[in-house]
Specification:
The chain is mainly alpha-helical. 80% of the residues lie in helices and 1% in strands. The chain is globular, with a radius of gyration of 22 Å.
């Protein structure tokens, strides 16, 4: 059994234990009626939209923000929808950002009414999805847990995989333990953090959005660092010995370990929260959820071995360029997603861009249609261009 296989199995075991621990230690809300929750949110939102005018814009915006944080997120509806139908959850989040942003901008009442109508329609769809999931019982629990762990695990695994293959191709496998240690600590702390959120901050929506936003920015910085580190060391074969030891001694090794940590931490916490929401929908579903986790672990191992075979056949140079590009795209997405999380928490302003669609390709590429998010990503691209120019000039001087 390879080290990566043992790591995946350890992750699965940790999730098994966490599910039984959460189920035993936290009061499960099996009777939560999300149809009623959505109706309450819609009723309050209708009142806010009907009474909105430019004179009470700030109060109305705060009202919509509270509906999201206390109503949609605070009741657990957000995690529940995300656990079983993430695209719908992402759409609901975006609609809440849009309607809040329009009110902050003091948009005409008819625009606010139109956007709120879309939001209330989506809330009804979310409630219906949850109802159907509960009716399907154990089967839905199995499929849901498998999907969650595969989806979130694949995002983290792409980063871990890239780092391990980099070390393998550079004959640095003796340092693999740094990646595994970083990832393991990330998993452990993510489960502890999820337990703390569930126990003490289940209704502190703003705190959670701030934490998620900051985690996204840290992840973006580390992914960007590793991507640039790879591009800045393109003479892999010629400089294999001296250059590598120098880079490692200057802190690159620690940075790579931290990249593994933050990648697993942000995905691990989400996974635990989503699985807990899934368990809270059915008293009989915990064993099926555990079975889904096990199947997903096997699925991730299969994907890893397929990717390993494919990577082994790629020529030396193209592999690192492709890996660097993938990590950069993930960093680019994290910047926009971090802004969106802070906007959901009401921590920064929202200026929606109505003609731009919201895009989320399973965490690999995300685009949030707001002036703030797009501006941050544009600035990120400009900074990247300047760094690439510097790296190119440095390469030229060496030659």
């Amino acid at each position: 059994m390879t080290s990566f296989s043992r790591f995946i199995l350890a992750c699965a075991c940790s999730l098994f234990i966490s599910q039984f621990t959460f189920a035993a230690g936290a009061p499960a809300n099996f009777q939560q009626n999300y149809t009623q929750v959505s109706q309450d949110i819609i009723q309050k939102g209708d009142k806010l939209a009907d009474e909105y005018n430019k004179d009470n814009a700030e109060t109305t915006a705060d009202g919509f923000l509270d509906l999201y944080l206390s109503g949609y997120e605070g009741t657990g509806m957000e995690n529940t929808v995300a656990a079983i139908a993430q695209p719908h959850n992402l759409k609901t989040e975006q609609l809440f950002r849009d309607v809040t942003g329009l009110v902050f901008k003091q948009a005409p009442p008819e625009q606010v009414q139109q956007k709120w109508q879309q939001t209330r329609d989506q809330l009804k769809i979310d409630a219906l999805i949850i109802e159907q999931h509960i009716e399907n019982g154990a089967t839905s629990a199995l499929v849901g847990s498998f999907t969650i762990v595969m989806r979130e695990g694949l995002e983290a695994m792409l980063v871990i995989f890239a780092l391990l293959i980099i070390f393998k191709k550079r004959e640095l496998t003796k340092h693999n333990k740094v990646i595994y240690i970083g990832a393991s600590i990330g998993l452990l702390l993510s489960l502890i953090f999820a337990a703390i959120l569930l126990s003490y901050f289940s209704h502190a929506g703003q705190f959670r959005e701030a934490q998620e936003g900051i985690s996204m920015f840290i992840a973006a910085a580390m992914l960007f660092y590793v991507s640039c580190w790879m591009l800045g060391n393109q003479n892999w074969k010629q400089e294999l010995e001296g250059k590598v030891s120098q880079a490692i001694s200057k802190g690159s090794l620690a940075a790579i370990g931290f990249t593994a940590f933050i990648s697993v931490f942000r995905e691990g916490a989400e996974t635990a929260l989503f699985l807990n929401a899934l368990a809270n929908m059915t008293q009989e579903g915990v064993l099926m959820i555990v079975a889904g986790i096990g199947l997903a672990a096997i699925g991730l191992l299969i994907v890893y071995f397929i990717m390993s075979r494919a990577a082994a056949r790629l020529p030396f140079g193209p592999f690192f360029k492709i890996s660097s590009l993938v990590l950069y795209i993930m960093a680019f997405s994290c910047v926009g997603q971090g802004i969106a999380e802070l906007q959901e928490g009401g921590l920064i302003a929202i200026s929606p861009i109505s003609w731009l669609p919201s895009i989320n390709l399973y965490g690999l590429f995300q685009l949030s249609p707001s002036v703030e998010a797009i501006s941050a990503q544009a600035a990120f691209v400009v900074i990247t261009g300047l760094i690439l120019l510097y790296l190119t000039q440095r390469q030229s001087k060496r030659q």
